[in-house]
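2024-03-11 09:14:02 DEBUG pipeline.ingest accepted 1 chain
2024-03-11 09:14:02 DEBUG pipeline.ingest length=234
2024-03-11 09:14:03 DEBUG pipeline.predict start
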Amino acid sequence: MLQRDGDREFDAYLARPAGVGPRTGPGIIIFTEMFGMARHNFEMADAYARRGFHALVPNLYWRSPYPGELGYDGADREAAWARLKAFDVEAAGRDIVTAVNWLRGQPSSNGKVFALGFCAGGRMAFVAAARANVDAAVSFYGMGIATHADEFAAVRCPVHLHYGLKDPHIPQTEVDEVMRLAKDRPNIEVFLYADAGHSFFNPIRPGYHAPSAKIAGERLVALLNRVCPIVATA
């Protein structure tokens, strides 16, 4: 638990690396899709922990009437869209600061935190870069980043924004606006994938596009290695 508000708890999933000493491991915070915390998010965190990261998946929907996981189809999908529409971004921004500070303060953390987000969580990765002083951030098909036009100047860390140009949820006008806002800001890079749609990085979703995911994954790993390298300990 990261925080309590009355009878509500700001819960999160934490995967710890094995065999690390004090102040040795970087952190990675993973912001989920609009469907909430799910098994594939935990598996991703576990994979990063095996590489030496402290991996945290915070439940940013903990303030919502229904904070749990929702399915991809049917009534659950409609509920996920409704929850996202009602989502309080300002409160989530404060929650992100809480989560980043908590992760950074873990005894075996070296203080570095990398933000990674997908779909609605892609937008939260950008918010983390603008408001939570993370060391780097990567957003995959983040919906709504253009609405943060006044925060681009606040981003000081390296940021990667990945968009599939066949994404039905992110219009070309939004992508164009993000590119305009990122222009002349060398720390913010926008990557476009002509043949990819939404969820192109998620192998369990129909929109997965392996060629684009491979290129994006290589870019992600390169940034991780540059900003938050894993240092082997004896």
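2024-03-11 09:14:41 DEBUG pipeline.report The mean pLDDT is 94.
2024-03-11 09:14:41 DEBUG pipeline.predict end
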